[in-house]
Amino acid sequence: MIELLAITDDPVAPPPPLRLVPAGPVAVVVGPAPEGEVDAEALWDRESLLEDLMDERALLPIRYGTRVEDDAAAAAAVVPRGAELAAALERVRGAVEVSVRAIAPEGEEAGDVGAVHARLSGLAREHARHDGPEPLRAAYLVDRAGVDVFVAAVRELQQEHRGLSILCTGPWPPYSFAEPR
Amino acid sequence: MSKTSQAIAEREVALVDLVDRLLGGGVVIAGEITLAVADVDLVHVSLRALVSSVEKARPQEP
Amino acid sequence: MKDKVLAAPLNGDLDAFERKIPHLSNALSRRIDADPESVQQGLAQLVLTIVELLRQLMERQALRRIDGGGLTDEQVENLGRTFMELDRAMEELRDHFGLEPEDLNLDLGPLGRLL
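Predict the joint structure of the above. Result:
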């Protein structure tokens, strides 16, 4: 079994043991399927691999745990969606995902959360709300060069909205923007 | 809070975001809906009891 | 791995953002296998599991009715025959998709097994 890690269109081979399997207009980064328990460490290992890849190339992360028998099966699974995946790569090229969660410990109004989301959306190429226990759990697709400005805006918003606690993490590979529309 | 325990706490909150993304995000390869029913959603069912949400993001129009 | 927290709340209190993830390995033991045949089998497994759950619930309900009395002998016999037929039908379906009886169950992690 091999594990599928990411879709890319960069022809440069990734560092071993990762390999590139061509699939129509795109290619799949594959690696040996990890054995053993899936724990937090395993997830961070995957994240670390993707971040290294992401530094060098545009990529779409593949849902964790996707495995196929061999290279031929990997190509067969991806080729039919080649065109739309290529288009999705264009959407994320040069950008990273930033996560923002905001909670209102004092039972503040959700209106503040709306204002935070609106301001941050204005600084992002795209945005996506996730379901979660917090009033705001969102992902923003931000130009690599714009991350500092984005984080500075988060800090300002935190100053302006004292009732909210805002947590901002990243940069992440574009997990929330990988699936073509 | 010491520097180390602060680092661990940051790691743990970041793990929530990571789990959200690795398991709820990314490209779903091969038969999206079927796969989601057949296997991925089963993962979600059990995870939802553990993490409060690993719902797939619903991208909005930019 | 770089630090992932880009901006923390003013009071530095991160606890509220945490959700404990105790049995991740357990929950993740089911993996995605992007192979059409196993996708079909996985779907069949899920559907049959739900059918099996309903069958068992009905069977238990029927047994309660029988134990409680108030059913004629003919009704009891009909119920018994119906459930035997259902059981046989399930067996055929399982065979068709290459599933064992123990496959028709869901591991709900800390919530235990479905059936």
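The first helix of chain C runs from residue 24 to 27.
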